[in-house]
Structure formats: C-alpha cells, structure tokens
TrEMBL record:
Start and end residues of each stretch annotated as Disordered: 126-145
Transmembrane intervals: 29-50
UniProt entry tagged with the keyword Protein biosynthesis: no
Cleavable signal peptide: 1-19
Key words of the record: Membrane, Signal, Transmembrane, Transmembrane helix
Residue stretches making up the Glutaredoxin domain: 70-127
Protein name: Glutaredoxin domain-containing protein
Amino acid sequence: MTRAWILPMLMVLCGSALAAGLIADGSPGAAAALLLVFVLLAGVNSPLIFPRSIGALEAQRRSAADGRPVVFWRPGCKYCMQLRIRLGRSARQVHWVDIWRDPAGAAAVRAANDGNETVPTVIVADQPHTNPDPAWVRKQLSRSA
C-alpha cells in the first residue's frame, strides 16, 4: 500500500522544499502557486482518482457474472491515468485491480504480457488487451449493460 503513495508524497515534499526556498527569497505568492501545482500533480498521481481496487480473483469472478471489463493498473502510470480520465463516469462500472496491491493481479498481467507488468491491461471475456483505446473500453461496457 505504501508503494502507491511514494510518488505523490515525493511530489508534495519536493514542492514544499521549493516553496520554502521561494518564501525565503521573499516570494510567498509564487511559493503558494508552485505548491498548489505540486499538490495537484500529487493528487492526480495518487490512487485517489481511481475507483476502489479489488483483488484480481474477485474482479474476475464479478466480471464473469456481469460481463464488465477488468482493468489492471498501478499508481503513477500515465497510460492508466489517461484511461481513467477518458472513461469519465463510466470508469466506476469497470472492475479495477491495482497490481501493486494484489500479487495475483500482477501475475495475471505478467501472464498476459509475456512476463512484463505492462498496464493498463484490460481483460474482457478472458481476452487480455494491453493499453486499449478508451472508446473501445466504453463500447465493451455498453455491451455488458
């Protein structure tokens, strides 16, 4: 769990250090703006923008029952973030598995990607798709509804 928060915490710490330097130089306005940018970047790279992750086995069980895609992701992955943002509200309908939290999820991704932990990997009807187009994922969601 702490691994998912390393990048966001580093961003906040770096932003705080840079802001402290700007405050020492007499630029509190610039320091506040810079710190805000770093905090926003940290928020975007944190697990907070993703729906709650579940285990790979539970996600596969639910997907078999409702036909919805399973997305394997990890915090800090810009392609995962892009998929999440472009899915918009429909992202809550997908089953999300954080491979840094779930060893079974990481193993499923490695099995689908020749031993690599390439994310996002989306599984629909037991077929893996690595870094698919968000429009395609939305189409899969509409088929499962």
